[in-house]
Amino acid sequence: MEVDQSLLCESAKDVERRLFNRAINCLARREHSRKELHDKLVVYFDKWLNDSDVVIDIEVLIESTLARVSSYGYLDDRRFAEMFVRSRTAKGFGPVRIKSELERKGVASDIIAGSLTQERSEQIEILVSGISIKKKWSNINDYKVRAQISRHYAAKGFSFETIRAAIETVSRTI
Predict the structure, then answer these.
(1) Which of 2, 74, 96, 158 has its CA 20 to 30 A from that of 17?
(2) In which domain, by residue range, is 97 found?
């Protein structure tokens, strides 16, 4: 079956326009990492392609769309990482978990390191206030309570050294 080149060219332009519009719509809702947006565009393209008879190289079009969106300043992994760190820190998550989530979202390790600037003393303050608020943790000298606190904050992404320092700080103030 012969494919008319003018139709193919027009279809590629149409697909590129659709991909660009989709990327802009995704970025209008919230920041995305490059990998996240790439994955969303692949899913969208596959869904759209199943409804048409077009044969186009998906990666070339998606990469050109991502480059175009980046050139306009709409897509920036550094900005995404800073926003993500602020959001997760406000929800009480620690640096270990935040780093893991950013890696899963495809953010480069140097960008992650630059975004995670919270000092250990700030982390300890956050944990001390969290431990002090919970009434069920009022008996901080009990080994079981300390273990429960450690498990809770380890799951939130804080290091055991930071957790231990916060527990010691709280136990000294009681």
Answers:
(1) 2
(2) 77-115
Distance CA 66, CA 37 (A): 8
Check if the beta carbon of residue 88 is closer than 8 Å to that of residue 126: no
Q: Are residues 12 and 27 in the same domain?
A: yes
- Residues 28-57 have pLDDT tens digits of 999 999 999 999 999 888 776 665 555 567
Residue 32's alpha-carbon distances to 2, 78, 123, 162, in angstroms, are 40, 10, 26, 30
Is the distance from CB of 84 to CB of 102 less than 8 angstroms? yes
CA 155 to centroid of chain Cα atoms? 17
Contact 37, 45 (CB under 8 A): no
* C-alpha dist (Å) from residue 124 to 41, 138, 139, 169: 40, 18, 19, 9
Tokens of residue 63, six digits = 């990469």
Ramachandran sector of residue 161 (left: φ over 0; alpha: ψ -120 to 50; beta: rest): alpha
Predicted TM-score (pTM) of the model is: 0.80
Amino acid occupying residue 65: T
